[in-house]
Amino acid sequence: xxxxxxxxxxxxxxxxxxxxxxxxxxxxxxxxxxxxxxxxxxxxxxxxxxxxxxxxxxxxxxxxxxxxxxxxxxxxxxxxxxxxxxxxxxxxxxxxxxxxxxxxxxxxxxxxxxxxxxxxxxxxxxxxxxxxxxxxxxxxxxxxxxxxxxxxxxxxxxxxxxxxxxxxxxxxxxxxxxxxxxxxxxxxxxxxxxxxxxxxxxxxxxxxxxxxxxxxxxxxxxxxxxxxxxxxxxxxxxxxxxxxxxxxxxxxxxxxxxxxxxxxxxxxxxxxxxxxxxxxxxxxxx
Length: 286
Hints:
Shape: elongated
CATH class of the domain at 1-73: Alpha Beta
CATH superfamily of the domain at 1-73: ACT domain
Radius of gyration: 20 Å
Distance between the termini: 14 Å
Keywords: Amino-acid biosynthesis, Hydrolase, Magnesium, Metal-binding, Serine biosynthesis
Largest sheet: 7 strands, mixed
Cofactor: Mg(2+)
Number of strands: 11
Strand order of the largest sheet: 8-7-6-5-9-10-11
Enzyme class: hydrolase
EC number: 3.1.3.3
CATH topology of the domain at 1-73: Alpha-Beta Plaits
Number of helices: 12
InterPro entries: HAD-like_SerB, HAD-like_sf, HAD_sf, PSP
CATH architecture of the domain at 1-73: 2-Layer Sandwich
Helix content: 25-40%
């Protein structure tokens, strides 16, 4: 296997320590590291084992390095679709928590959000409970959240530019809301989006969601549907997410990326990005 290492602030001796640990055939810097602000290295000819992975995981966490064991010669061009979660993945916030803040209810809603992302509450139940707390809120709060609080995650634009230039399609599939995914689609020139629709009557949120709730099953079904539309196998998909409701779509992908993710997600994903930005996937597939 190849072991890809990347980080933003490299401690002295970290690469030498990892070289001694994994005993690669060669070690080389990845020229012009694709992740903005990151340094990256490729260690080739590494003999993979679960024991070695656990040791690398501990060493990289201590050094604040991200790592990925990648089959040699695997390239971005092997894939046809990048599917992304929105809240806390493509963007830095949980939109529903920020909407709730306009109602003075952020702590209550955020607590339910966190429990759902850790997999402790079924997503449908958690969304229904959280949205109900927003009943009566002026719908103008959604625009305020978009204007004042929504920010793209580090490396998001760089990553999207590179994958779009390589001809891959993009899907934003979210347990969040169409108000935000529609704006992300236009702003970032995304190919597909799918999310939940908040019911609004007379300019106020009713506390209800219209139609099918986009939960873990619906996310997986959406990835499968888009793959059929573009003539791709799900294994030609890179799926990026952070919460338990992303695991089912990550499970059918060819490469699953846990971004600043909950432990349950990091444990099951192909790779995790804890320190560099979303564009860290570019170094893995360089």
